[in-house]
Write a structure and sequence with these properties.
Order of helices and strands: HHHHHHEEEEEEH
Structural class: alpha+beta
Number of helices: 7
Number of strands: 6
Radius of gyration: 26 Å
Largest sheet: 6 strands, antiparallel, barrel
Number of domains: 2
Oligomer: single chain
Helix content: 40-55%
């Protein structure tokens, strides 16, 4: 069975809705502040001097919540589990604050908090494997690798890992740290992180800056596969390490 077909699709670039949500969280407190001033009948509500005058009447606890909300919104663009958790906490605090102080449920904040718990929206934050945009670009090459006396064809390679194909049906390398010699020019310690039949995804272990440069030089000079080989047709992150 080809396990690559059952794996979830990732994101080649950071989803635009993450930027939109981040902008909403950063801008909405200020917009609400301006609307509140306008509702009070202040004709010059868009004047900075009026903002400062009204700002003195806002409690420190409110400013703390506003600062936390805006900083959490800015942190969302880093797309990590902790930023997703902080965003949920920020929306929950906003809901509680409005209910306790104004006896009113902020519908927009409640909907945003609920939306963040939906699988399509939470997955990029919780699953690094779906964040394809963070992966080093992979280049299809026509190289040979040797490990433990076995020969492998290198299907694609990046600065952080490679996708190998066994030429002798080897299936016992999963989870083992091995040393791969690429075309006799570069030796790398690797760890098997994924396997799909005879294809084995490996990540390079403890790669120094000097070694990364050597890998890039190898990629630049390596022969490319034939156009019909399909070596570079797989999306990043599906079969490659």
């Amino acid at each position: 069975m080809n396990t690559s077909q059952t794996k979830p699709q990732g994101y080649r670039s950071k989803p635009a809705w993450i930027y939109a949500l981040s902008a909403f969280m950063c801008a909405s407190p200020f917009v609400c502040f301006l609307l509140a001033i306008r509702r009070m009948g202040e004709s010059h509500w868009a004047t900075p001097s009026v903002w400062l005058r009204f700002a003195h009447h806002i409690p420190g606890s409110v400013w703390a919540l506003v600062a936390f909300f805006m900083m959490t919104g800015a942190a969302l663009v880093f797309v990590r589990r902790v930023t997703w958790t902080l965003a949920l906490i920020a929306f929950a605090l906003l809901v509680v604050f409005n209910v306790v102080l104004f006896k009113k449920l902020p519908l927009l904040a409640g909907l945003a908090m609920a939306a963040l718990t939906l699988r399509p929206l939470r997955n990029p934050f919780l699953s690094p494997k779906l964040r394809w945009w963070e992966q080093a670009p992979r280049v299809a090459v026509d190289l040979e690798a040797v490990s433990q006396g076995e020969r492998f064809r290198v299907i694609n390679i990046s600065a952080t890992g490679a996708l190998l194909e066994s030429q002798s049906g080897v299936h016992y390398l999963e989870g083992v740290v091995l040393q791969v010699s690429l075309s006799g020019r570069l030796e790398l310690d690797c760890k098997v992180v994924r396997r799909d039949g005879e294809r084995i995804g490996v990540s390079f272990v403890d790669v120094s800056r000097k070694t990364r440069k050597a890998i890039r030089r190898l990629i630049a000079s390596a022969p490319k596969p034939k156009a019909d080989s399909g070596a570079g047709s797989q999306p990043p992150g599906q079969l490659a390490a």
